[in-house]
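Continuing the batch. This is chain 6 of the set; chains 1 through 5 are on the previous pages. Same settings as before, nothing changed between runs. Recording input and output for traceability.
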Amino acid sequence: MRTIKSTLLFILAISMSSYLMSQELNFEINSPTIYDETIDLGIGSSFTKNGMILTWVQEVSGQTHTNQLEIISSAGNWDVDSSTGNLIYNLVQEGSGITLTIIGQTDGITAELTMPSSDPEAPTLVYTFTECIISYL
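Output for chain 6:
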């Protein structure tokens, strides 16, 4: 019985440390390209996470568009030494739920942003960010 309690406490501690790590990790990710399905939109983007705010900056035809999103929850594991793992951030902007998933592998980092369309009849929008470069704040 004592071993079961110890094991459960260990699992809980690992789960909490993963949750806290994703909450406390502050970073900036830059991507030169955004894909909508397989179409390169020709837009550069950056995501800056600082505390419970994620700022998304897009460079479109020489103009900068900035969106601030509130982080309502996060999950995942991330190794800052190798920039590998996965992080999932559930965000909200003007009442709309948005999800940012960041995947770091040995061959690079990609991110995926899933958000509702402004047209309720249209499908959910999924944008993929490739060739991402991460720096830690």
